[in-house]
Amino acid sequence: MAGTAVPCLSLIRADQPTVPVPAVYEASLCLIAQGAKRVSLGDISMVYDASRYLLVSVDLPLVGHVTEASPEAPYLCCKIDLDMAVLADLVIAEGRPPLRSDLPVLAVYPEDADLVDAACRLVGLLGRSESIATLAPLIEREILYRLLNGPHGPLLRQMSAADSRLGQISRAIATIRQGFHEQLRIDEIAEAAGMSASSLHAHFKSITHMTPLEYQKQLRLQEARRLMLAEGANAGTAGFAVGYESQSQFTREYRRLFGAPPRQDIERLQDNGQLVSGVTPTKQMPVGEAGFPKSAVPSETRRRHSQMRHSRSGI
After folding, report:
1. At what angle do helices 153-160 and 84-94 cross, to 10 degrees?
2. Is 228 strand, coil or helix?
């Protein structure tokens, strides 16, 4: 995954299918131009591709792997982070009270032509750096507006309400992420979320499919993996850096999550040429140049998305 000059935008490319990799997906929109990817949260699994986009409403530890990619037709995806402050501002401007929603925090939806068009214009700014500071916030706001008025809108509106259960769990997640290397104190997390400890535990698990402790454990292990792979830390140093006092416990829990002890796992990733970062075959309808359904996307959008694909092919 490569960050870009547009703060909320990242671009991802893979030339071959990848092994399943656990990673924390921040609240974001993922649009694929070509290829396909599968993501899993516990026993829930879903595939998204050029005809379906992925929406992650809160920061979630997911397992993802590219399922369709080749040197001739690489996997190409853009990830747009959701700015919750801008989202809340839009909800206030609309003046529509948020309603209770039981929509999942991880979902796949059919591609939306207007959403794709806005994303293509955002990516297109990478070729016009002088326009990024002025236009990127406007396009980002448009994207959030279209999400608010799409199938996931009720849940996003609920998130903007500070006293909603989803808003409270979002604050709990942010608190855990800020201090994941420290001992987890449920009472402090519950206080930050504005909930009782028992209510926090129940609602946290219903939304993320894991307990707060399991969530923290995944954050720790994924950060330790990144330290070893990207910064060359050894297992002992990485485990200590993320809060483990026992090397044997670190190795045991690392193997349970990643399927191999630290050294073997890192060697496997290095052999496969994979990087660890935070952010997926079925027959489809005829697609345009960039992999989007022709019937769903205006010709101008297809042209822009095709330009995006070819101009960013080195990422």
Report:
1. 100
2. helix
Cα torsion through 176, 182, 187, 190, rounded to 10? -10
Neighbours of 58 (CB within 10 A): 22
Place of tokens 């406007």: 138
The pTM for the full model equals: 0.76
| Cα 89 to the center of its chain, rounded Å | 22
Burial 150-165 (b: 16+ CB within 10 A, else e): bebbebbbbbbbeebb
According to DSSP, residue 293 is labeled B
Strands 21-25 and 106-110, sheet pairing: unpaired
Report CA dihedral (263, 268, 269, 271) to the nearest 10 degrees. 120
Say which residues have a Cβ less than 8 Å from residue 60's Cβ, sequence separation at least 6: 24, 25, 41, 105, 106, 208
In degrees and rounded to multiples of 5, residue 46 shows phi and psi of -150, 155
Give the type of residue at 115: L
Question: Helical H runs in 70-181?
Answer: 84-94, 113-124, 132-148, 153-160, 165-178
Selection from 207, 26, 208 nearest residue 102 by Cα: 207
Element at 36 (helix H, strand E):
strand 36-41
Element (H or E) spanning 14, and its range? Answer: strand 9-14
Predicted confidence band at 23 (pLDDT cuts at 50, 70, 90)?
confident
Domains parsed from the chain with CATH numbers: 1-160+283-315 (2.60.120), 162-209 (1.10.10)
- Name which of 9, 110, 73 is nearest 309 in CA terms: 73
Structure tokens belonging to residue 121: 């214009």
Least confident of 33-37, 73-77, 139-143, 151-155: 151-155
Q: What is the helix (H) or strand (E) element at residue 66, kind and residue range?
A: strand 60-68
